[in-house]
Amino acid sequence: MAEELSLIDFWTAPYGMRVRIALEEKGIQYQFIKEDLSTLDKSPLLLKMNPIHKKIPVLIHGGRPICESLIILQYIDEVWNETSPLLPQDPQQRAHARFWADFVDKKVYECVTNMWKKKGEALEAAKKEFIETFKLMEGAMGDDLFLGGETFGFLDIALIPFTAFFNTCEIFGNFTIEPELPKIVAWAKRCNERESVSKVLPNPPKAYEVICLARKLQGIE
Questions:
Q1: pLDDT in tens, 38-88
Q2: Helix then strand then coil, % of the chain, to nearest 5
Q3: Which residues touch 95 (CB under 8 Å, ≥6 apart)?
Q4: Among candidates 189, 156, 201, which has minimal Cα distance to 181?
Q5: Which residues are CB-contacts of 102 (< 8 A; sequence separation ≥ 6)?
Q6: Distances (CA, A) of 191 to 21, 28, 129, 136, 156
Q7: Domains and CATH numbers, the chain
Q8: From the centroid of its chain, how far is CA 29?
Q9: 60 by DSSP, 3-state: which?
Q10: pLDDT band of 1, cuts 50, 70, 90
């Protein structure tokens, strides 16, 4: 597919990280278009390409937009299907991956962001929910190396961006994640050994700086 490819995104946005990891896995070249998240104003390009949700990421392929990160991942896998398949071939395994990716979107994002948004008793409740949620992900992984089995794929890409904020969660939650979730931490380390992941995920201090700025912008501090 020789059409021009670009991505509207912000470097620490976890949903956008998914798309960048997938593109790196496939070895696909694209133009990165930065969306400024420090202001409430949306760029004209974002409003044009995603007028419904007005959110990043947006993949623009041949001038036509594809929105919502999980949909974008599946689109990438279908269009550039010659190398590094993201979804398994077996229909039941594909359904399993999609189910848990949907779980990540509905549960994980909120339980991670609550770790830096909540205070006092609400923070303690958020910490409990964080651990319980990721324990469910550990159960889904079983004894496999990755969330989708023995190879890195769709579900790993769906979850791994949120681990970039584990250190931030530990700081604000005043706890250590590894003793509570050893399998998830070991999995995250395996994922970070991949160039596609290490190249995209921000290092913990940078991720922490961004969250501190977000807290100030939202009047949390």
A1: 777 899 999 999 999 999 999 999 999 999 999 999 999 999 999 899 999
A2: 60, 10, 30
A3: none
A4: 189
A5: 70
A6: 11, 19, 24, 19, 8
A7: 5-79 (3.40.30.10), 91-217 (1.20.1050.10)
A8: 20
A9: strand
A10: very low
